[in-house]
Specification:
Blueprint lengths: L25 H9 L4 E5 L5 E4 L2 H6 L3 H4 L13 H13 L5 E8 L5 E10 L9 E7 L8 H13 L4 E6 L4 E4 L11 H7 L9 H14 L2 E9 L5 E13 L2 E10 L1 H20 L2 H27 L6 H25 L7 E3 L1 H15 L4 E7 L5 E4 L1 H17 L5 E12 L1 H5 L7 E10 L6 H6 L17 H11 L3 E6 L5 E10 L21 E5 L3 H13 L3 E5 L2 H10 L6 E5 L7 H11 L5 E5 L3 H6 L9 E3 L4 H13 L1
Parallel strand pairs: 12-14, 18-19, 18-20, 20-21, 21-22
Antiparallel strand pairs: 1-2, 1-5, 3-4, 4-5, 6-7, 6-10, 8-9, 9-10, 11-13, 13-17, 14-15, 15-17, 16-17
Length: about 650
Amino acid sequence: MPESGVTGPPPSPPDPRDGSHWHWPAHALGALVHDADEGMVLVDEQARILYANAACERILGYPPTELVGRIGFDFCRPEHLPLAHEEFNRSLTFPGAPVTFDVDARHRDSTFRRLAVKLVNRLPTPEVASVLVHVREATPVPPRDAEHDADQYRALFYHAPVGLGIADLDGTLLVFNDAILEPGGYTRDDILRIGNVAALYSDPTDRARVLGLARERGFVWREGVRFRRKDGTHYDALLSLTPVRFEGRQCWYAVVEDVTELRALEGQLRQAQKMEEIGRITGGIAHDFNNLLSVILLFSQAAKRTVDAGAPVDRADLDSIEEAARSAAAMTAHLLGFSRQADLALVPTDLAGVVRSLATMLRHALSEDVAIEVAADELVATVRADPRAVKQMLLNLATNARDAMPNGGTLRIAVAEATLDEAYVAGHPGARAGDHVRVSVADTGMGMDEETRRHAFEPFFTTKPPGKGTGLGLAMVYGLTKQQHGFVELVSADGRGTAVNLYFPAVPEAAQPPPRPLSKELVRGGSETILLVEDDAPLRRSAQRVLRAFGYTVLAAADGLEALMRYRTHPGRIDLVISDLVMPRMGGPELYHALRTTVGPVKFLFVSGYGGRYAKARGVLDREIPFVQKPWELNDLLITVRRALDG
């Protein structure tokens, strides 16, 4: 019924065509709320009742005048108080978002009634400034057997197929089920001895990140983390955290899902997709490699004929062989970068310094009709990156820019700090909010149309003529940037040039000075005994010859089993083992572990055409073992051997 003084029908809705606005009179709205069939209550942030409508008396038995001033939690069944507190706090955390739950409330006749409750936080709204509570009667509450319920809850908790646990705010596990133990291979005694979950994280920054999200949002939902197994290996998991009250204190209720197998399957699928894409360009890759191999074969055969004739070898011929081999190595690096198998060493890096050191090389590498402008702020933040990978990426982008300016133009490389906000992240999948350092490579070339821009980062996509490009360049840049936790943005328009912006997250660390190139160090030989293990016979012979020329005694083996026999039967001391990673019968990692088990600590040096990451995947966990990537430079190999022997 309308309040006294309110006459006539309510105003008609506005005509949607005229755009006018209309409002109900405040007293009419008050009448609607007061006479609603659903209980409606306003409470403050302490849950103190400020207003209750007439329906509350029918639902709870108390007239509104007896409800005002009381605390809403006072009416809850004691067992439901934690739930009510948790949901009320959730509504305070997320203004405007409805929060619904069922709770048992005490009626005036001392019985309990099941109520369906919906909370809407309107505290930030000046006109309301309260939490609106909608209350209606739910299904009647049947008599409960508390002991039976407790048994059911225990069964659900301890036999759940995912890991469940409750930890206090300091990280001490208070209760947990068996499923939380299985992925790590722990026993209950192990967990009780370890005590704090902080010791289970493979990377302490994972825990800091998760707790930061929990403080910011009030909960964590399926956040990716990596935990340490009992045997020292690692497994991937999704972690969810919800605040709960347990034994009278605030705790975290944790759900841990082991996704190691899923991640492995995803990786296999991605790799299979990449291999399928590689099949599309096999002809182009073979064409480029055959050109390079032809150069190497022709000049090496010419050099042999010259030697046979007793004449001196032309140094220019040898330079051509070396240049062709370097080009082949660069192409292999592109393939590794695309497949994300390249081994990166992420260290605190000054990107501005990297760009400045690259500027001179670019001026020699690009044609004279391309002007180069470099703007690198002196005081940019530090990032975690691999300086060599960054240089490789920038060289690739500069080469693309040169090709986009066949008649000359300007290449601009700029380094500056940039902050990505949530609005930017929402429109750029893969980006993360926060402080970054942006490296921008821009040209004044022909630019890209919409179709080209959409496919630019796809492997083997290229607009260059056959023999002029493999289409791996931008895909490699994309893969390497992701490996360094960065983000790539492409800005281009047909006829208006292209800019590729690389964003790297800033870190609060001081940048490390660039390492001195190995080839600049003094090359020294020695008289120690080296066991060389390599299944490729020509490479084994050439490495053996070089090492002997520098004074070393070199024993050779074609695989791990032969090396194991040579090591055990050699009468003298073997000072260093140089081993390939992948070989028939027994590979390098297996040889390493076999020698450590049967002989004890052995100095090792691994070499491979695969990335160093492959060594770790094969079970070589000692990060102190030096590694040389094939194809190696002569000086770099000799210097690394000397370091391994002296280390």
